[in-house]
Amino acid sequence: MGILDIILRGAIDRRIAAYQNDLMTKHVAEVENIYKQMRGWRHDYHNHIQTMKGYRALGLENQIDGYLNSLESDLTSVDTLIKSGNIMVDAILNSKLSLAKSRHILINAKAVMPKNISIAEIDLCVIIGNLLDNAIEACLRIDEAGERFIRVYMDMKRKDLYISITNASGGVTQKQGGKYISGKGENHGFGLMRVDKIVDKYGGYIKRNNEDGAFTSEIMLPL
Fold this sequence. Notes:
This protein folds into 2 domains: 2-77; 87-222, Histidine kinase-like ATPase, C-terminal domain (Heat Shock Protein 90). The protein has 5 helices and 7 strands. Strand 2 (149-157) and strand 3 (160-168) form a beta hairpin. By secondary structure, the protein is α+β, with helices and mostly antiparallel strands. The strands form 2 sheets. Strands 1-2-3-7-6 form a 5-stranded mixed β-sheet, with helices on one face. A two-stranded antiparallel ribbon has the order 4-5.
């Protein structure tokens, strides 16, 4: 029994380590994407200044106003996708959705959250992060970029937090033991189990459905 216990603990430790490495890889990709946007703006900043100086030297003040309006519109396009009212939720949603957008996935997202909630931030991060990771991975398995989409909706329903994430699935998602499973291997399945355990921890409800080429996860968490 002692040898079996050691083997089991070793297997669990390796699985957790692989899962953590997978999360770190995703986090690095998200941060790199944000830095890429920032570097792009820094690179263009000098050119924008020179252009406006040129307009002023030529006495084209109206051209400067038009140019500034164009810059404002461009800045809006790289602004945060979500402003829910909760800083932590905004951080995880914007990092994931920014990465999805950079990979040519159509995003439709709305989130309304109270500033303070009773759910631990780490737990909410695990739920949102894993659901969006799976949604992004499912979309990237679709060859046609125009068919990739993710829809996110989060809001309060009375005293419950409602979370709905829908993504293009490109086909029927596999089931095992009556439950949907990830198509990307055991570490990703481990993420889904983490979501289920957290929902159960708060006495919540989770429903998954796959039809018409779209996979949806719906969660209700009592607050």
